[in-house]
Amino acid sequence: MTFLNFVTKNKNWLGAGALLTLSSSYGQTFFISLFAGKIMEGFSLTDGQWGSVYALSTAFSAIVMVWAGALTDKFRARSLGVMFLCILAFTCFLMSLVTSFWVLPILIFFLRFSGQGMLSHIGSVSMARWFVASRGKALAIATLGFSFGEAILPMTVAFLLSFLYWRSIWVAAAVVSLITIPILIKLLKVERTPQANSENAETVGQLDNRHWTRNQVLSHWLFWLYFPSIMSISMWGTALFFQQVHLTSTKGWSLLQFTSLIPVYTCSTILAMMFYGWAIDRYGTSKLLSLYQIPMALSFFLFGISDSLFMAGIAFALFGITHGANSTIPGAFWAENFGTKNLGSIKAMATAVSVFGSALGPALSGILIDYEIPFSKQMPFISVFVIICCFLNWIAVNKIKRIYD
């Protein structure tokens, strides 16, 4: 089947996956952080305090994800998608009204849980479960929603903030989320469900040729070798976007100049997603696991040492390569190695780890900023951390080869 035929035949399911990942944007750091300056000013917060509030809320969302993510093994993506879109829309509306500091962490929790957590999780798990031979391509296409949001929303919001009150933008986000609901229902009018799949429709994992439960995965050495990599991209990628207001001020750039480079990152991400989607279907994830984060290590090194917008563009392109790979490889990795029967609960644990990483990155970087260590000075050390993750993945891949080849 050609790529065009694949997309045409499965356009509703793929479109639903992309719509879910796009809708998660309002709970993603690249969107919320655009309001960081306004929020810190309105609530008289330092970088470290705002980072800590954000981290605490995100960490709680990670804990809840461990339970809530398993719902994708039992309920339709359509039902779950509608429910969490409603939660996200209501939370966005409340963000336009919040004046109490004690309410702010609660709203950040619901943004992160419903948006970054559940909507992206539902989209990813659905693609990995519904498609087998074309799993990589399906994940890549569905994840285009992320890329579209990252390309359009930062520049749009930065532009709107120049003449609109920041709270009005949150009202618009709530309205768009509600408009998305009937579109999702129409796309998934006919939908596969976990319960409807027969036992032989589920694919077993290549490890021991069986279906693994979440507890069994947690007791396996492969999970723990891959654990730092699960955290790495979300931890430091989130920190990059979370600290964009601080980073631009220390580099002497305007926020609009910085966000205007994001389409470079988006194009790079999309091209990488398409490539890795094809590569996963052809070679599997094992041959890609130890290499896909290397461009990210180079990216943070360049961000750290250079004050040039041109070099920042190259750094964005490199980070986009890793981000595109990360949009496809982990989802396929869990299904390929541990099977699809309990994929929702397994990936929920991985998503929780990723979400926890996205809490830790802003908090740690914000605290260091309060101690007068600019984020740009932190970045070369982040590169070293990423290289260590690549080395651990290399150990994991070679250990699998020795055991199962």
Explain what you see.
This protein has 405 residues and is an all-alpha fold. It is 76% helix and 0% strand. The protein is built from 20 helices and no strands. It has helices at 3-9, 11-23, 29-32, 36-43, 47-68, 77-95, 104-130, 135-142, 144-160, 166-187, 214-218, 221-242, 244-251, 255-259, 262-283, 294-305, 309-326, 329-338, 343-370, 375-404. Helix 12 runs antiparallel to helix 20. It is globular, with a radius of gyration of 20 Å.
What is this structure, in a nutshell?
Helix content is 76%, strand content 0%. With 405 residues, it is mostly helical.
List keywords for this structure.
single chain, mainly alpha, 20 helices, 0% strand
Residues in helices, as a percent range: over 70%
Question: What is the CA-based Rg, rounded?
Answer: 20 Å
Distance between the termini: 30 Å
Shape: globular
Q: Please identify the structural class as seen in this structure.
A: mainly alpha
Order of helices and strands: HHHHHHHHHHHHHHHHHHHH
Largest sheet: none
Number of helices: 20
In terms of per-residue confidence, which ranges show pLDDT below 50 for 5 or more consecutive residues?
A: 193-200
| Count of individual beta strands | 0
How much strand content do the residues show?
A: under 5%
